[in-house]
Amino acid sequence: MTLTIGKAEALILFELLADFHKEPHIVVHDNAERLSLMRLGGVLEKALPEPFLQDYEQIVAVARQQLNEAWGTYDPER
To answer: Is residue 36 assigned to a domain?
Structure first.
């Protein structure tokens, strides 16, 4: 299977999943969901050089800004 997403989306997903195995911030219902998320994080880690760059935090901030500008910010009241 091939998934195509933009660089900004990939960076934000990686950031979300990077420490998922240590501190699960996403509610999962079983080990299959947990494993799937962990494996997705691993695939992103192998595909992205940015997490290893010194200015990674700034890169993620720019990606987050790009996505918020393109799609708007999240409003949990909606």
So the answer is: yes
Tokens of 77: 């009241």
Q: What is the pTM of this model?
A: 0.80
The amino acid present at 78, given as its one-letter code, is: R
Is 78 inside a domain boundary? no
How many structural domains does the chain have? Answer: 1
**How distant, in Å, are the alpha carbons of 4, 32, 46, 48 from that of 61?**
21, 31, 20, 16
pLDDT in tens, 32-68: 998 999 899 999 999 999 999 999 999 999 999 999 9
Query: Residue 17: which domain range?
Result: 7-71
